[in-house]
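Margin note from the TA: students keep mixing up input and output lines. Inputs are the sequences; the output is the structure of the whole complex. Example:
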Amino acid sequence: MFKKTWYLYLFVYVVLLGLLYLSFQRIDYQWNWSVIWDYREKLSQGWLMTLKISAVALILSVVWGWVLMLMQRGPALLKSFSLTWVHLMRGTPLLVQILLFFYVIANAAGLDNRFWLSVLILSNFSAAYISEIFRSALESIPKSQWDAARSIGLEPWQTYKEVIGPQLIKIALPALGGQFASIVKDSSLLSIIAVSEFTLNAQEVNSLTYSTLEVYLPLAFGYLLITAPITWFAHRMERRLHYEF
Amino acid sequence: MSSSKIKLKIDSLSFSYPGHEVFQDFSLDIEFESLLLMGPSGGGKSTLMRLLCGLELPESGTIAWDTEVLAHDEKGLRAFRKKTGVVFQSFNLFPHLSALENICLPLVKVHAVSQSEAEERAMEALKSFSLEDHALKMPAKLSGGQKQRVAILRAMITRPKLLFLDEPTSALDPYMTHEVFKMIADVERAHPCPVILVTHHVSFAQKCTAKHLF
């Protein structure tokens, strides 16, 4: 689909960029790119840190999200814990969670590794959403599929691996792709606990140069560089796993 | 239909769905080659079949096939289900697997048959019923009759000791119904085993020498 219509996508990009360009022309914006170039190394270090935090958080959030979903299918205590936890994480701002986990809980526990704490906070937040994506995907698989798997004698783990898992991934993938892109963007909030990621470094460069848009436009482009491959890969997997019910 | 007899002994079986009692102290002692379960819709035929094939746990009472008493836990029932074949009304093929993969799955994953041998056996079975051209098709690309015939092959490929058929033709047109029943008879001839069939087809029931349970 993408190959056949790539020029249409290109056209949309050109139109949007053209509109942006015309807007800048109209307000007669004075660009100052040379100052930013001096800080390219600082910005790229921040970008790499964002990439690292997002990549690890993405993996952990899938694992923790799966565990939270399974807990909801388990004994009453685990189910209550999971439901409450997911409700709290989804119902409160990430900003507050970052402050609370970092300055209160981690502080009280004597933890101070900013990278790992960032990863844990971010993946925990995202896992709440992912567990709901998994839950709704799981519930949409007909009961008859479980019956068929049981009737041929599959063990429970085989049922998940051979029958439910592949169908669940196919159903969950579109929503998961969006959630993965959100993890990358949400990582920008970690700047409030002084994690040296992309947004914090951009804010610092901005305060040094007063060239706000010259910093924030590359910032947006930098995030797109990470989210675009995720979206592309999710779409590719969707096509590969395509089958009709 | 088949040439192998089996004894079924049900003792004080009770089972209910939330708010709906299906069996209360139901007992039965019977020996048969094939058993037809007939009766009105909602009369508990399919529930009885699910209990007999170990897909449901009774609240109380026991079910015994010959000398084997069905376990009252999922693990024990799983061991029993490995020895049976079940064909459902709505086919229940796995939609992400091709017809061939659907048939191979129980052989490879449950009965530890190598992938190549499983494929060979599955292809042979598909060929016997002129389904080889559909081997690589996904279930969504198969007609209702083709889906049900693949489902029958998946149930029979492991050479089960008991075959359960839950209204296998109720979703099919009259021609396909005839074809599927013919196939069941052919498969049975090649690998005789006791059959428990839930059906509304009185004509089939009349032709069949099986014991009837209303």
